[in-house]
């Protein structure tokens, strides 16, 4: 019998504590962040079933913006309604925002983040081990038919070897899933298990209905409130500080950037870097690279690098304000306009997506996306591994295609050693994630202090 999910699946305070702990572990870009939620919510706490988790992730992959944060909002909404989504999405970005705000100030003061970089250099190998574990587990539970394995491999190859744009990969996977539903529906029946591991049933089963009823009235209300919340700060700085101020420019620019980040942050960072460096002159090309490095080694979505960009731009063009006050204002405003749309997309779309889970044609398309997402996460994991273990990459031409491969001579022995230790702690000793992160952070800091 199909059950219905209520408003509070778990006590709200318990959910807040869980999301806070998750927020402290969101290193490693979307691959690492999805890995943390997979391990915590699906495997350890068993709050949500694997197929339900995949369904939410598929929807978030179709949206502009950081898919991991949107996934947190979606699952938080499933567990505790609107307030659950607000808390999950806010906590997901808050530690990274505060960390990058502090590092931006450190950069302005001393132009040196060597100790901090060394600390996070130890965390990166730990995240690499966690991501590897997540790829294996998600693949084991999601790729339940040889066809799905082929789709995952094809998605990985298309992204890693041929540089096919992310939206094309996802669209092709959805079309394939729909085609299989029409031509060979028995494949989907065989591959549509719950991926159970013999443990207790999750609090939100894969087949349960959500209580929220989609309606145009509710969607219109959420849209109106969301648009006001999104644009009111931008209108305020335009009114009080001028339409030609750096704050208004940043508010408008990053609001637009938030709507075109399909395929994750990497898809839009080139555009942001070009405009921020060449058009607005908020920072130099070298500073953009350093800001990206800081964003990659702090918790939260990689798109948080826009906060560093806004901080430097406002500090150098305060428009009559104290430079530090201007930097803080520009930074907070940019984070606001970047992430508020994410809440809108989920709160408006999630009730409809929940009801569409039982539409066989759409579910088939999303099943194809599920398989492709495994390849996407594997590609992100490969990218993260290359930049964790090697310091430089070189272009390699393969016919009309060009890809960057790591330079073997640039392999970091320290990063390799910490990665091996992290893999042993993860797969052999099976230690808790926070303990692994803490030990690896200490190892990274120690090797830097010893000048190894």
TrEMBL record:
It is found in: Cell membrane. The keyword Endoplasmic reticulum does not apply. InterPro entries: Chr_Tranpt_l_chain (IPR014047), Chromate_transpt (IPR003370). It is a multi-pass membrane protein. Keywords: Cell membrane, Membrane, Transmembrane, Transmembrane helix. It holds the Pfam family Chromate_transp. The chain crosses the membrane at residues 86-109, 116-136, 148-176, 222-241, 253-272, 292-312, 324-348, 360-385, 410-429. The keyword Transmembrane helix applies. Belongs to the chromate ion transporter (CHR) (TC 2.A.51) family. This is Chromate efflux transporter. The gene is chrA.
């Amino acid at each position: 019998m199909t059950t219905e999910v209520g408003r509070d699946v778990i006590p709200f305070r318990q959910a807040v504590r869980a999301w806070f702990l998750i927020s402290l572990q969101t290193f490693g870009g979307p691959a690492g962040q999805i890995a943390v939620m997979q391990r915590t919510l699906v495997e350890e706490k068993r709050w949500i079933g694997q197929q339900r988790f995949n369904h939410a992730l598929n929807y978030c992959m179709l949206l502009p913006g950081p898919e991991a944060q949107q996934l947190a909002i979606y699952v938080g909404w499933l567990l505790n309604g609107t307030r659950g989504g607000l808390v999950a999405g806010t906590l997901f970005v808050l530690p990274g925002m505060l960390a990058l705000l502090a590092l931006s100030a450190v950069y302005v003061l001393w132009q040196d983040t060597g100790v901090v970089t060394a600390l996070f250099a130890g965390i990166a190998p730990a995240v690499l081990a966690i991501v590897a574990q997540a790829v294996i587990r998600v693949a084991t539970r999601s790729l339940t038919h040889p066809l799905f394995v082929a789709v995952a491999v094809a998605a990985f190859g298309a992204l890693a070897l041929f540089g096919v744009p992310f939206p094309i990969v996802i669209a092709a996977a959805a079309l394939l899933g729909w085609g299989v539903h029409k031509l060979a529906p028995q494949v989907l029946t065989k591959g549509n298990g719950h991926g159970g591991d013999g443990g207790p049933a999750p609090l939100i089963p894969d087949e349960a209905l959500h209580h929220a009823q989609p309606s145009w009235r509710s969607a219109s209300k959420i849209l109106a409130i969301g648009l006001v919340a999104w644009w009111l700060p931008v209108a305020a700085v335009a009114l009080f500080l001028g339409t030609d101020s750096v704050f208004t420019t940043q508010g408008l620019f990053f609001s637009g950037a938030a709507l075109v980040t399909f395929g994750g942050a990497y898809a839009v960072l080139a555009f942001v870097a070009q405009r921020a460096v060449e058009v607005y002159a908020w920072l130099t090309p070298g500073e953009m690279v350093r800001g990206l490095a800081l964003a990659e080694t702090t918790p939260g979505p990689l798109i948080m690098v826009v906060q560093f960009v806004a901080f430097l731009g406002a500090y150098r063009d305060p428009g009559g304000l104290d430079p530090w006050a201007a930097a803080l204002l520009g930074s907070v405003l940019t984070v606001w306009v970047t992430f508020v749309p994410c809440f809108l997309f989920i709160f408006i779309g999630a009730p409809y997506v929940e009801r569409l889970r039982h539409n066989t044609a759409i579910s088939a398309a999303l099943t194809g996306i599920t398989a492709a997402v495994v390849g996407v996460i594997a590609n992100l994991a490969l990218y993260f591994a290359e930049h964790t273990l090697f310091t430089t990459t070189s272009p390699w031409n393969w016919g009309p295609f060009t890809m960057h491969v790591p330079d073997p001579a640039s392999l970091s022995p320290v990063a390799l050693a910490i990665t091996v230790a992290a893999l042993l702690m993860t797969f052999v000793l099976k230690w808790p994630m926070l303990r692994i992160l803490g030990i690896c952070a200490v190892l990274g800091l120690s090797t830097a202090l010893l000048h190894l």
